[in-house]
């Protein structure tokens, strides 16, 4: 359904306010086998406050997150690790049982993390709706919480519906051949390759 991942770089801008995200996505081979790394830098504003954030997400070949680091330009940092089966811990080894069952993550301020469940689940129109608990990290506090989300494939490999579990927000997300969001109505717009 999706192309095999090659190194790719994309940029998004927020629909409202100023900002920009520059993301590089690439395949890696390490001691554990094939892996995927996403590295990104974002600048923007939310709720009247400006921010500068960088993150790195490491996944296995099945798009299960096993590590992520997110850090502000002021040095506020969060580094969490997973076994890929929904068991989380801090970098110092402290278990985080409140996130048991959260296989995917959702970082506020980026459309990239929508790619994680889309690629991991390989949803088709026949799959129905997937109900997920996400480890959600807001940019204002870096205090993770559990967030219920729903994903439905509307057009195989091309269009997916994202819904908040409480139905407070819904968006139809067109994606490219890598499963990366092209347009996120009301929130983000992808810049064309010619502008990168």
Automatic annotation (TrEMBL):
<dbReference type="InterPro" id="IPR009467">
    <property type="entry name" value="Glycolipid-bd_prot_put"/>
</dbReference>
<dbReference type="Pfam" id="PF06475">
    <property type="entry name" value="Glycolipid_bind"/>
</dbReference>
<protein>
    <submittedName>
        <fullName>Transcriptional regulator</fullName>
    </submittedName>
</protein>
């Amino acid at each position: 359904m999706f192309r095999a991942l090659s190194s790719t770089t994309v940029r998004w801008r927020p629909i409202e306010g100023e900002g920009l995200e520059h993301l590089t996505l690439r395949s890696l081979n390490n001691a554990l086998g094939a892996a995927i790394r996403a590295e990104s830098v974002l600048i923007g504003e939310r709720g009247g406050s400006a921010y500068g954030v960088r993150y790195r997400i490491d996944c296995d070949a099945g798009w299960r997150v096993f590590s992520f680091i997110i850090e502000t330009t002021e040095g506020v940092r969060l580094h969490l690790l997973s076994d890929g089966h929904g068991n989380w811990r801090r970098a110092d080894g402290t278990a985080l049982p409140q996130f048991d069952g959260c296989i995917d993550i959702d970082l506020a301020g980026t459309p990239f993390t929508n790619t994680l469940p889309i690629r991991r689940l390989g949803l088709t129109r026949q799959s129905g709706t997937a109900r997920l608990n996400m480890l959600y990290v807001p940019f204002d506090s870096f205090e993770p919480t559990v967030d219920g989300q729903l994903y439905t494939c509307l057009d195989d490999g091309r269009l997916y519906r994202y819904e908040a579990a409480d139905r407070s927000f819904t968006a139809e997300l067109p994606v490219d051949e890598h499963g990366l969001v092209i347009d996120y109505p009301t929130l983000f717009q992808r810049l064309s390759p010619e502008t990168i």
